[in-house]
Amino acid sequence: MTTATGGGQAASIPTLTxxxxxxxxxAANSSIDLYLLMRPxxxxxxxxxxxxxxxxxxxxxxxxxxxxxxxxxxxxxxxRAERQVSGRVFRVIRITAQGKAMFNESDTSALSx
Length: 113
Description:
Elements: E1 2-5, E2 12-15, H1 18-29, E3 34-39, H2 47-64, E4 68-70, H3 76-86, E5 89-95, H4 97-101, E6 103-104, E7 107-111
Antiparallel strand pairs: 1-2, 3-5, 4-5, 6-7
């Protein structure tokens, strides 16, 4: 997320990145909770690692804005079982009413501002 500031104004307006917009669009189009891979089983230590870290930071920003909510506790047993089997760590997110309101119900490919 970046911030855009008005001419000389102290307040800033959050601006969504392409990843954040796509995540919000996918969440708005989904009727189920979304699983977010927090740590893959293996990482190449380079670009793949940077991508996962960046995506997790950007998702955290959406959580902080109240556009998404973390509902992982509801799936704790399933997450724990998956971690034991695959070594992967997941977080489960759900779009909030505020996040859903950003998208036009008839066309979720564009923000309705």
